[in-house]
């Protein structure tokens, strides 16, 4: 059983007064992550909504030391910071417990622009946690498509809907043979909290991807952000799992879907609730587009189920 929300610490490391949209799912994700990481951590960020909303020192809304880095160094910068701490400790110049060094990077930074650096750090098994908060687009720069944007979604660079299917980044990371990979969602905070606590205790490269639906870009009411996150899991558009040393286990409620105990919700209501899919329902070929998206999800679930048997 995941930690109950009432047992998650009340400490806050993302401070109030930051510039994110009210109710931002990425900010909420960072708040929950912070509660698990605690104060002894160093954060590295590539350009994103989080960077734009945190502000700069000495008025930053982050209570950890934070470094704004380039996409091209999305793996090497954090690895260098961690190596520096480890070296100081070895030489007796750093006392106390080593901090957790973590990347806080969006899907654009992770799937696309920073991918080579993240892949290289994973292959070296550098001792860091890479968090990808996935809002399925480049939100900060005005909602352009990313490798995480699903098929038929409107973005400003896919005005007729995206033609390609999305990349499967968590499984790509799993194929780097790293000790820990997990997916999570802001709708299941206890599960996210537990996964971060576990990742903190493991040496080597850890990858955690958090589904964070951006109401501003996707077009739905901010009050629905948790419901939308929950629907993504219940439809199978997003699956919750963790993999320790390559072995996948599913987390609730995805485990019930994977074992066949629970039926997945059909995707229609989820799509109808977001204006980024509005044109699907205006066109005569609505049925085919819904079938395409449903087929992408079905294939993803089948593949993940088979991969879990390995
Ligand atoms: C090399 C480089 N290319 C493009 C940009 C412009 N840029 C800044 S933030 C961003 C989008 C990042 O998207 P994502 O990582 O998903 O974060 P989000 O905005 O969704 O929070 C882009 C393209 C940049 N800063 N550097
Ligand atoms: S645009 Fe989306 S991800 Fe960015 S701050 Fe607003 S709600 Fe959050
Ligand atoms: Mg994004």
Your description of this structure?
It is built from 13 helices and eight strands. By secondary structure, it is α/β, with parallel strands linked by helices. The protein has a single domain (11-308), classed as Thiamin diphosphate (ThDP)-binding fold, Pyr/PP domains (Rossmann fold). The chain has an eight-stranded mixed β-sheet with strand order 2-1-3-4-6-5-7-8, sandwiched between helices. Helix 1 (25-37) crosses helix 7 (189-200). The protein starts with 24 loop residues before the first helix and ends with a helix. Residues 106-108, 135, 137-139, 146 line the site of magnesium ion. The site of thiamine diphosphate has 17 residues, from helix 4.
Return the string of H and E elements.
Answer: HEHEHEHHEHEHEHHEEHHHH
Tell me, what is the CATH class? Alpha Beta
Count of the domains: 1
Number of strands: 8
Structural class: alpha/beta
How far apart are the termini? Answer: 24 Å
- Sheet having the most strands: 8 strands, mixed
CATH architecture: 3-Layer(aba) Sandwich
Q: What does the overall shape look like?
A: globular
Associated small molecules: thiamine diphosphate, iron/sulfur cluster, magnesium ion
Work out the radius of gyration: 19 Å
**CATH fold naming:** Rossmann fold
Fourth-tier CATH superfamily name: Thiamin diphosphate (ThDP)-binding fold, Pyr/PP domains
Order of strands in the sheet with most strands: 2-1-3-4-6-5-7-8
Pick out the low-confidence regions.
none
Q: pLDDT average, as an integer?
A: 96
Helix content: 25-40%
Proportion of β residues? 5-15%
């Amino acid at each position: 059983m995941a930690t109950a929300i009432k047992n998650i610490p009340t400490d806050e490391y993302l401070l109030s007064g930051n510039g994110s949209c009210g109710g931002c799912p990425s900010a909420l994700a960072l708040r929950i992550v912070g509660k698990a990481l605690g104060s002894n951590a160093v954060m590295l960020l590539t350009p994103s909504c989080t960077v734009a909303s945190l502000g700069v020192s000495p008025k930053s809304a982050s209570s950890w030391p934070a470094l704004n880095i380039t996409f091209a160094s999305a793996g090497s910068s954090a690895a260098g910071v961690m190596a520096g701490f480890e070296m100081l400790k070895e030489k007796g110049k750093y006392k106390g417990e080593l901090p957790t060094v973590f990347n806080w990077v969006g899907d654009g930074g992770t799937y696309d622009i920073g991918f080579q650096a993240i892949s290289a750090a994973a292959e070296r098994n550098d001792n860091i946690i890479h968090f990808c908060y996935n809002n399925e687009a480049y939100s900060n720069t005005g909602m352009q498509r990313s490798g995480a944007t699903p098929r038929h979604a409107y973005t400003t660079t896919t005005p007729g809907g995206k033609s390609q299917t999305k990349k499967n980044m968590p499984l790509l990371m799993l194929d780097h043979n790293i000790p820990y990979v997990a997916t999570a969602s802001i709708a299941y905070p206890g599960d996210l909290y537990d996964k971060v606590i576990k990742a903190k205790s493991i040496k080597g490269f850890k990858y955690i991807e958090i589904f964070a639906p951006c109401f501003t870009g996707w077009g739905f009411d901010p009050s629905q952000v948790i419901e939308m996150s929950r629907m993504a899991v219940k439809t199978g558009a997003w699956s919750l799992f963790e993999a320790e040393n390559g072995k996948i286990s599913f987390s609730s409620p995805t485990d019930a879907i994977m074992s066949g105990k629970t039926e997945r919700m059909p995707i229609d209501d989820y799509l109808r609730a977001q204006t980024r899919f509005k044109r699907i329902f205006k066109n005569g070929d609505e049925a085919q587009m819904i079938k395409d998206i449903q087929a992408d999800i079905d294939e993803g679930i089948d593949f993940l189920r088979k991969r879990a048997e390995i």
